[in-house]
Amino acid sequence: DQTTSADATVVNGTNALHSLVKSNTGTFIIGNKLNVFDKLASTGGVLDLNGNVVLRSTATNTAFVDKVTGTLVGQVIVERYIHKQQRGWRAVTAPITFNGIVNNNNDKVINNWQNNFGYSSNYGTRVTGPIAGGSTGIDDVSPGSSMQKFNSTTGTWDKVTNTNSETLSGSSASAANKAFYMFIRGDRTVVPNGSTPYNFVPTVLASKGLLQTGPQVFQYTGAVNKTWLVGNPYACPIDMESVVQSNLGQFLYIWDPNLAGQSVNTTGNYATFDINTWNAGPNTGGANKYFQSGQAFFVKPTSINSTLIFNESNKVTSTQNNTSVTGALNGLTDIFNVKLFNVKANGDRSEVDGTRAKFGANFSADVDENDGAKWPTSVENISFKRNDKLLVIEARPYIKNTDTLFLNMINMAVANYEFVVNPLDFDATVFACRLVDKFLNADIPISLTSGSTIGFSVSAVTGSNASNRFYFVFMGSGSLPVNTVNINAYKQNNSIAIEWEAIKETEIKTYDVEKSIDGNNFGMITIQSPRNDQSTNKYSVLDNNPVVGTNYFRIKSNLLNGSVRYSTIARVNMSEKTVRSIVVYPNPSRGNSIGLMMNNMEAGKYTARLFNSAGIEIWKGVITHNGGNGSVTIRLNNVLRSGSYHLQLTDMKGNGFTEGLMMVD
Q1: Are the C-beta atoms of residues 92 and 294 closer than 8 Å to each other?
Q2: How far is CA 531 from CA 117, 438, 504, 506, 554, in A?
Q3: Nearest C-alpha neighbor of 41 from the set 25, 65, 17
Q4: How far apart are CA 133 and CA 138, in angstroms?
Q5: N or C: which end of the chain has fewer CB within 10 A?
Q6: In whole angstroms, what is the distance from residue 626 CA to residue 603 CA?
Q7: Number of neighbouring beta carbons within 10 Å of residue 140
Q8: Alpha-carbon distance 405 to 407, whole Å?
Q9: Confidence of residue 523 (pLDDT cuts 50, 70, 90)
C-alpha cells in the first residue's frame, strides 16, 4: 500500500499476501503471480491485477474483494473451496465477466471449473453426462447430467451437454455471471465408480476472468410465477437483506448440501428464507442472510419486470446477529419452528429439514402469497399441509381459541429421528400446545417458552412412516384446556414429592407416575386413580427412593379411549450425602428374580415385602446389607405374572423404602 501517488509495477518479491490494499492515486500493476488469502481492495487510483492475482479459498477462509471505490482492472483467478465431505449438489456461480476480452476461448467451463490449473489434486472437478468424450468436454458417462441450468421460461432444468461450448459467465458489462446447479463428487481425481460411489476428495473450483464491480443489475427474462436461479455477482459475501429487489415473491430458496438424512447417498436439501424478516428460515442448516462468494440462489418473480440490483454497499466482511421480535399482545408475529434431525446409532445427529408457522394479525387462514411453497426432494422432508398444499412456511391468523398445524413428512427411512421445536415469544394469549402422534396414539406437551425435543422412530410397521402421523394442537385464551396436566417435583427431606394438577379432568382411566434416572427411559413407580369430575384436581405422591444425582418424573395419563398423554418432565437433583434409596433393575423385570440396587443405605438387615397392584402381600424375605452402595438379587418362589407390583424395604429402625416395578412374561 503506497503512501505517495505513483505508477509502479511489481516484478519480483513474495507471491503470497494476507491482504492487498491499493489506497492511493496512480496505477499499480501486478507483474508476477500473487496469492491473496484474505482481503483485496482498491480505494484509490488503479489496481491492475494483470492476470496474476489469485484469490485463494481454503477450508478455513476465502479471500474477498472489499467495497471498491477505486478502479480494479485486469483478469484474476477466483477460487471457491468445496467443503462438504461427501458428494452433493451445489447451486454455484463464478463472480466474473469476460467483458472486453477478445479472441478468448478461456470463457468455457472446461477451461475453468474443470481445470486443475496445474495442481495434481484438490483442484477442479469432473463433469458427467449421458455422452462423454470427443468435442463434448464431458469427462465421464452418467445417466443424468451433473451440470444444469434452470430455464425460467419452461420451469425446467436444461442439461449442460458440452462444456467446450458452454460459457461459465457472459461478456456483458453488468451481471454477467451465470448460475448453475452442479453435482460435485470431488476433485479431478474422483472418477465416478459404481463400486465406491460415495468417495469425496475436497476440491477448489477456480475461474479466471474480470472481477465484477459497481452496480450489477439482473433483469428477469422468464415467465411469470416461474423460478429464477441467480448468482452472487461479487467475489465477496453479501447481505441479501440490503439488495434492491423488485417484483419478487416473499420467499427465497437455497440448496444446502449440509442438510443430510439417513441415506449415505444424501446430497442436500432446499432451505428457505422469508425475505420480509430475514431471521433465517426453518431449515437453513445454519445458513443465514449473508450469501457467500460463488453462491447461487432461487427466487420467485411475480412479474416479467422483476429485477435484482446489487451494489458495492451490499458487501459484508463480517456477519452480524439477526434479531427478531414476536408476541401477539404487542401486535407482532408469533413464530413456531420445527426442525427434523436424523439420529445415528452412535448418537450423532444431523439436521435434515425444517418447517415454520407464523401467526399474525395480517395473515389469512387460507393459502396465499404469505405462505411459502415446499420444494420436496428425494431425501426426508417435513412441511405443513393446508388445503392439499405443502408449505415450508405457513402463515396463520393469531390463535384465539384453538388451531391445528398438520405436519407432513415424506421419504422417511427406517431410522431414529428427533423433532426440535423452538417457539419464539408466544405470550399469554396462547397457553398450551401438544404434539399428537397418531401412530403411537399419544399426546406430547410442547413448551411455548423454551425448546422441546421429541424423539421418534420409523420402522417397517404400517403407519410408522405415514405422512400424516403427526399434528400440533394449540389452545388460545378463548378456549378452555381439557385434561391438561401440570407437574411439579421437589425435595422433601430424603424423599421427593411429586405433585400434579389436572385441569377439567374427564375420561381418564389412570395416572401412571413415571420415573427415570437418565431422562429417556421411564418406568412406573405408582398408579393414581382419577376423580373425573370435570374440575381441577390436585394429586401428590412421594418417591422415597431417589437416586443420587438427577431424578426425572412425568405423569402418564391413560384415557378411557385407549390413548395416552404425557406431562412435561420435572427434575430434582439429590445430593450424595443425603440420599438413601433403592432402585429395581431392570424395570420391567421378568421371571422369578428382581435386581435391587441399594444406595447410601445403613448396614444391617432389612425386611423385604412384595405387593401386587391390589395391595396384597405375595412374598416376604430378609436382606442383609453391608452398608453404603451395593446390589442384591431377590429370588422369588414363583414366576410372577405380568403386571404392576411394589417392593417395600424396612430397616431395623422402622424406616421404609418403596419402589414400583413391572413384571412381564
Answers
A1: yes
A2: 79, 27, 10, 8, 19
A3: 65
A4: 6
A5: C
A6: 5
A7: 16
A8: 6
A9: confident
Q: Say if residue 372 is exposed, middle or buried (CB neighbours under 10 Å; 0-12, 13-18, 19+).
A: buried
Report the 10 Å Cβ neighbour count for 642: 10
> Residue 590 phi/psi, 5° resolution?
-145, 160
Place of cell 466482511: 317
CA distance 514 to 494: 19
**607, 649 contact by CB (below 8 A):** yes
d(CA 650, CA 582): 11
- Tell me the CA distances in angstroms from 665 to 336, 611, 640, 645, one per residue in order: 44, 18, 8, 14
Name the nearest CA neighbour of 181 among 199, 157, 163.
157
pTM: 0.62
Distance CA 105, CA 19 (A): 31
- The single-letter code of the amino acid at 431 is F
**8 Å CB contact between 308 and 332:** no
Mean pLDDT computed over every residue of the chain: 84
Closest-CA residue to 50 (of 6, 93, 82, 20): 20
Residue 9 has what pLDDT? 44
Question: Cell triple for residue 60?
Answer: 478455513
| Minimum mean pLDDT range among 113-122, 493-502, 581-590 | 581-590
Lowest-pLDDT choice from 409-413, 557-561, 641-645: 641-645
